[in-house]
Design goal:
It contains eight helices and no strands. With 295 residues, the chain is mainly alpha-helical. The chain folds into two domains: 10-76, Helix Hairpins (Orthogonal Bundle), CATH 1.10.287.70; 85-294, Cytochrome c oxidase, subunit III, four-helix bundle (Four Helix Bundle (Hemerythrin (Met), subunit A), Up-down Bundle). Helix 3 runs antiparallel to helix 7 and helix 5 packs antiparallel against helix 8 (269-294). The longest helix has 40 residues, at 79-118. The N and C termini lie far apart (63 Å).
C-alpha cells in the first residue's frame, strides 16, 4: 500500500484581494506622479496615492507572511509544501530577472540602435532634416532637442560612490552566505552576526544611493526629465534601489525571527528564500555597475 504526504490547504484568505488592490493603487499613483512631473504640474496627488498603495502593500505582506509563519510554526507544512515554496520563490525570482531584462534591453536598444539612427545611420534623410547638427555619443549629453529635453551637465562617475556600493553589495553576499552556513550548523551566533552585518551593508548602500541621487539632481541636472539617459539611469537604478529596500526589510524580518528562536538546521526556507532574493539583487547591481556606470 503506497503512502502519500499530506498537503496543507489553507482556509479562504483576504490577502490576495488586498494585494491586488494595493498593487493597482501603487502603480496608478506612481504613473500619475511621473506624468505630473513630466507636465511640470505644481501639485500632484500621485505621491499621496503611491504612498497609500505602499502602505497597503506593507500591511498585506505583514499579515500574509505572518499567517504563513504561524502555519509553519504549527507544523502544518509537509516536505511537499516546502518544495512548493521553493518552486514559488524560484519562479518569482525568474519573473524579476525578466523585469530587469526588459529595462536592460531598452538600454541596449536605445544605446546601440536608436542613438545611431538619430545621427543618420539608416535614416540619413529624416535625421538631417530634423537635427542636422546632432552627433550621437553615449552617455547622451547633447540631446537632439535640448530646448524640450535639456541635457544634464554630467553623469555619475563609476569609480566613486557606485564602486563603493558595488563593494558593499558583493561583501554583503559573502556575509549572508556565512550567516547561512552558520544556520546549517546550528551556530545561531554566527547567523546573527552575519545577518546583522549584511543589514548594515545594505543600509549603507541605500544611504549612499540617496546621496548619489541628490548630487545628480542638484549639481548635475541629471533627472528623469533630462532626456533618455536620465530616464534609463533612474529607471534601472531606482527599481534596483527599491529591490534593495525590499531585501533589507526581508532580512530584517529574518533576523527578528532568528532572535525569537525560529528556524533550525533542517527547516529554514524563510531564511533561504530571503537569501536567494538578496543574491539576485547583488547580481543585478553588478550588471548595472558595468553597463550603466562603466561602459
Amino acid at each position: 500500500m503506497s503512502t502519500h504526504q499530506t498537503y496543507y490547504v489553507p482556509a479562504q484568505s483576504k490577502w490576495p484581494i488586498i494585494a491586488t488592490l494595493a498593487l493597482l493603487i501603487t502603480v496608478y499613483g506612481l504613473g500619475s506622479w511621473f506624468n505630473d512631473l513630466k507636465a511640470d504640474r505644481a501639485e500632484s496627488n500621485g505621491p499621496l496615492i503611491f504612498f497609500i498603495g505602499a502602505l497597503l502593500i506593507a500591511y498585506m505582506m505583514f499579515g500574509w507572511f505572518g499567517a504563513v509563519v504561524k502555519e509553519s510554526r504549527a507544523g502544518l507544512y509537509s516536505p511537499q509544501m516546502d518544495r512548493s515554496f521553493r518552486w514559488g520563490m524560484s519562479w518569482f525570482i525568474f519573473s524579476e530577472v525578466m523585469f530587469f531584462s526588459a529595462f536592460f534591453g531598452a538600454l541596449f536598444y536605445i544605446r546601440f540602435w536608436v542613438g545611431p539612427w538619430l545621427d543618420g545611420d539608416g535614416a540619413k534623410g529624416v535625421s538631417a532634416m530634423l537635427w542636422p547638427d546632432f552627433e550621437y555619443s553615449w552617455p547622451l549629453l547633447n540631446n537632439p532637442d535640448p530646448k524640450l529635453y535639456p541635457a544634464p551637465e554630467g553623469v555619475i562617475g563609476a569609480w566613486g560612490l557606485p564602486l563603493i556600493n558595488t563593494i558593499l553589495l558583493v561583501t554583503s553576499s559573502f556575509t549572508l552566505t556565512w550567516a547561512h552556513h552558520g544556520l546549517k550548523k546550528n551556530n545561531r551566533k554566527q547567523t546573527k552576526i552575519g545577518l546583522a552585518i549584511t543589514l548594515v551593508l545594505g543600509a549603507i548602500f541605500l544611504v549612499l544611493q540617496a546621496e548619489e541621487y541628490i548630487h545628480a539632481y542638484t549639481e548635475l541636472g541629471l533627472t528623469l526629465g533630462s532626456g533618455i539617459y536620465g530616464a534609463t539611469f533612474f529607471m534601472l537604478t531606482g527599481f534596483h534601489g527599491a529591490h534593495v529596500t525590499m531585501g533589507v526589510i526581508m532580512l530584517t524580518v529574518m533576523l527578528v525571527r532568528i532572535l525569537r528562536g525560529h528556524f533550525n538546521a533542517e527547516h529554514h526556507f524563510g531564511f533561504e528564500g530571503a537569501s536567494w532574493y538578496w543574491h539576485f539583487v547583488d547580481v543585478v547591481w553588478i550588471g548595472l555597475f558595468v553597463f550603466v556606470y562603466v561602459l
